Structure formats: structure tokens, C-alpha cells
Amino acid sequence: xxxxxxxxxxxxxxxxLGLVPLIMLLLLYMAGSEARLAENEADKLLPxxxxxxxxxxxxxxxxxxRTGEYLFWVDTQSSLIRLGLGVGxxxxxxxxxxxxxxxxxxxxxxxxxxxxxxSLIPPLAVLPILFIVLGLGELSKVVxxxxxxxxxxxxxxxxxxxxxxxxxxxxxxxxxxxTAQIILRVILPQIMPRLIDAxxxxxxxxxxxxxxxxxxxxxxxLGYRIFLVRRYMAMDVILPYVAWxxxxxxxxxxxxxxxxxxxxxxxxxxxxxx
Amino acid sequence: xxxxxxxxxxxxxxxxxxxxxxxxxEGEFVTMVGASGCGKSTFLNLLLGTQSATQGEIxxxxxxxxxxxxxxxxxxxxxxxxxxxxxxxxxxxxxxALAQSGITGRLFGRAKREANQxxxxxxxxxxxxxxADQYPQALSGGMRQRxxxxxxxIAKPRILLLDEPFGALDPGIRNDMxxxxxxxxxxxxxxxxxxxxxxxxxxxxxxxxxxxxxxxxDPHAPQAYGASVTYDINLATTSEHDYxxxxxxxxxxxx
Lengths: 274, 255
Prior knowledge:
heterodimer, A: MetI-like fold, 80% helix, globular, B: alpha/beta, six-stranded mixed β-sheet, four-stranded antiparallel β-sheet, 7 helices
């Protein structure tokens, strides 16, 4: 009899085992929903799947009676633009700050204390300041996401830059490289897959800041909508929205992982030597 | 070509190198052996320019040697001395690309074609033609070191520094590498400094062998005295008998 820690399920069994909790959760929900609806037809807490379908149809495929817009898609578009801009700005500045502070000791000495302090500020505590200074428009939401995830990306990239073996940097110098060439040809290409990893890890936080900002001050967006319909206890809208956000998050993570896999074939090989 | 004059290296109270004075002519192949921590790698780093002397100086053609790595001194480390994100060919082509001025470190047009040609010839010499499009991680340890040597040599350094380049390789592959290195040393007219743990390798490969050891030793303060070159053996004039004798002596000293 093998010890438990040595037992490995086969691929098929593994997939089945993974599905079990999901199916159980689904069945539990359906049973609960049915029981509550049987007792009270107007119950809003656990809507049935037909009610979800109706809500999705209403939000996504029928124009809003008030504005004539397809709210679901408008919300999605607004949120994704904010998220994309915020994360994009954070990734770009994080990359630049991280590589420069990691590669150039004097830039590191200059910016490291500031970076440490900024990374310790809870971003949501700064949100009121952003609203006051930048107004309630798009800018303050994008800036919240950007300053929320930038310090993490910058520090991660800085650490990754410092992890590049000094032998490589010395080698480049003995081949005649100047500082700019070392950064552009030796450091930057090796940091790109690390940047994508850092963005993947920071997406969760980015969604948090997006939804928080939209919940507080917005007129559209996925976060705005779920906090708006909460007033009517519209679980039939909230749950599909949450599922949709989860699906979007999963998709972005998957796309970034594929980019890493396809664009940096050398990184896959890097086991003993990096 | 290279003169070392009254060179000292200390880290705080820890003296690593003590009063080193040596002179090396162009074209010599110096192998450096000694126990761990005896300062042979420190000396190589001083030549390379990644560390600086506490006292004294190293002169190259009468001028103090540059205090940072430069294209006149090529280097091959035991590991990590090739770029993992470039293919074998790109690694060799990186040398001419990085040698030009500007900030991109990339070649275009005719310069690129010429570099490509030169790199392919270099790969032919070190026997890596078939692996030109592979990434270094896919190569064996010996092939990776061949690449590192090719990459260093295409930059045409006058001095080649080797820091235990074959330390991680199997004995058979090591012999192949010795043959290759001797061949390249002769045809490129290089001056070579090589740190090795392997006394036999030191004897068989170079024209000159330096043994790093402490002249004085204080058992109560082992760090008080530094090492210097206790044996400076001209291998060109050493016979087999001398080899055995010196080997025995050195073994005794370094143990």
C-alpha cells in the first residue's frame, strides 16, 4: 500500500476529481434555489437558471428602455478600457522603473526608498484623493489601477533584473557593450516573460481596484452595475456579471500565458541555466 | 605585455593577495592553480576589472589596466557566460553587434550579413555548426562552453581569461576542450590566463604554471597573511620528471 503522498491520479481521474467540487456546488445551488422558489415564487436570493437567462437576455441582447444601449456590452467595454489602460500604464512604468532601478545602482539608490513607501500605501486609501484631484471621470479610475499595481510590478521586475547572472553582464562588457546596449539586448529581452508573469499576478488586484472605483463613482461598468442592482437585490443580474468577470479574468490570464509560451521559446528551456 | 607590481588585495582585515609581482609576455598561456580561497580567482577578477587592487597595480602595455571589463579582455566563466535568450548563432553575432557604438546593439544590412558569415566560420571552428539555431539551454555543458569561447574570441580580445571553464565537464569532454583551446590559442595569438582546480590540466595546458599559496601562515589569525605565487613554473622547459616532483611538492603544500 503506497503512502497517500505518493499516489498520483491519472490524467483522466485528475480531471474528474477536479470537476467533482464544481458539479457538487452547482447541484447544491440548484437544489437550494428550487427549494426557496417552491416556498416563495418571488424569492430573489437564489434565482433559477431560467431567471438568469432572462436577465442575461435583458441586459445583453435588448436595448435598455431608458438609454437604448445594450447595457451588458457597454459595461464590459467601459470596464475593459479602464482595466487595460490602468494595467498597461502600470506595466510600462513598472518595466521602466524596475529595469532601471535593477540595472543601474545609482538609479536604484535614488528611487528604492520612494518605491518602498509607495508600495506600502493602500491604494484604496488614496482613492478619495484621486477623486478630489482628478475628478470623478475616467482618469481617476485608470490612475487608481495604475498606482495600485505599478509598485508590485516595478519591484518584481527589479528583483528579476537583479537575478540575471552578473556573468552575462560582464560578458557583454567584454564584447564591448555600453550600458544602453546591455539594457536593451541582454536585460530587456530576458525580462519580457517576467513582465508578463508579473502582469498575470497583478490582474487580480487590478480587478479589485477597478470594481471598487466603479462601485463608488461611475455611470457604467461591470462593477458599477452589480453595485447598482444590489439595491433591488437583483441576484439574477449580479451572479451572471460575476461569472462574466471571472471568465474575462480567466481569458486574460490564459492569453498572457500563451503569449509567454509562444513568444519566448528559450524561456521554456531555461531550467538549470537562465 | 602585462606587469603586476606589488599587488595587494584586502577585504577589511582579510588579506587575500599579498605582494604579487609578476610579468607576462604576449602569447603566454598561464594556468593558475591553488587551494580554494587562495586568491587565484580574485587575481583573475583584478585582471578582468570587476575588482580593484587595494595596493599596487596591474599594467597592460605600461598603462594601468582598465577598472571595468572591456573588449581587450575576453572572459569565459564556468557557467552563465552565454545569453540564454539568443540562439547559438545570435550569441556569436552579439559580439560584433555590441562592439559598435549606438544604443540598440543590433546590426543591419551588410554589417549583419558580414557578422553572420564570420559567426558561421567561428562556429565551424568550434564544431557547433549543426547547433547554430538552437538555444544554449538545449546544448550539453561542453557545447555551451565551446559557444562561450567562440563568443569571446569573435570579439578579438588580446587576452583571454578563463575561470575554471571546464570545471563542470566530464573528463572525456574536457580533453576535447583542451585540444580546441590549444588550437585556438595558437592560431589567434592570444595571451591566456586560466584558473583551474585540476593540477594536471594546469600542467598539460599552459606554457607557464602559477601556484597560489600563502608564504606565511599564522594559525591564530588565518586571514592575516595573503597568498601570492609560490611557484612560477615555465612549462616549456619542464620535463616529465620535474612534473612529478613539482606535483608532489604542490600536493603537499596545498593540502
